[in-house]
């Protein structure tokens, strides 16, 4: 009975999270709040996940802009997760671990997944993400300064492409380096933008 109640609660949470407001003529003139642009503090890490329902794997991508102006790129292909939100949370955890491994004690994490940012900011309870929350809190305690905020998809294109490139591979792997391997992304012109 407990499993059925938990599954029902999880299904309802997922259903509510998928609701997007309809734009009608009545409310189309209502100004929507815009995210204020502020220059990113360095170091910052933009991350993204790529998840498709029928794929055996999901991909993670990260781009770290270091204090000295250098850039670190990361891609990870991992076995499929339950949902896109699980993939985004998993990507945040991987980005946090990678940042710590690279010696960063402070990091501003940025995601274009507003649902994840709100979930963490508002400390919402989502039963199927409890293990991720526990790991998040453990990793968070290892940083001197750490933040997570939302960023537009256009500002997150490099992480998005790294995630999609990782998902398209037929094997699991992890790569974090100042260079992106050519086998991962054939067109590297996008690496210079966003």
Automatic annotation (TrEMBL):
Pfam families: RVT_3. Residues 47-165 form the RNase H type-1 domain. This is RNase H type-1 domain-containing protein. It comes from Brassica cretica (Mustard). The lineage of its organism: Eukaryota, Viridiplantae, Streptophyta, Embryophyta, Tracheophyta.
């Amino acid at each position: 009975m407990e499993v059925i109640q938990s599954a029902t609660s999880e299904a309802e949470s997922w259903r509510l999270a998928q609701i997007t407001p309809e734009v009608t003529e009545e409310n189309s003139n209502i100004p929507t709040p815009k995210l204020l642009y502020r220059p990113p503090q360095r170091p910052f890490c933009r991350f993204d996940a790529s998840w498709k329902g029928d794929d055996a794997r999901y991909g993670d991508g990260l781009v770290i802009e270091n204090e000295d102006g250098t850039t670190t790129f990361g891609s990870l292909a991992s076995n499929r997760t339950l949902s896109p939100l699980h993939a985004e949370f998993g990507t945040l955890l991987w980005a946090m671990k990678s940042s710590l491994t690279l010696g960063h004690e402070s990091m501003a994490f940025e995601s274009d997944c507003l649902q994840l940012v709100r979930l963490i900011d508002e400390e919402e309870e989502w039963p199927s993400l409890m293990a991720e929350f526990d790991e998040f809190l453990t990793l968070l305690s290892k940083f001197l300064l750490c933040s997570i905020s939302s960023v537009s998809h256009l500002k997150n294109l490099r992480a998005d492409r790294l995630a999609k490139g990782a998902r398209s591979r037929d094997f699991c792997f992890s790569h974090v380096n100042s260079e992106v391997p050519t086998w991962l992304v054939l067109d590297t012109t996008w690496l210079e933008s966003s």
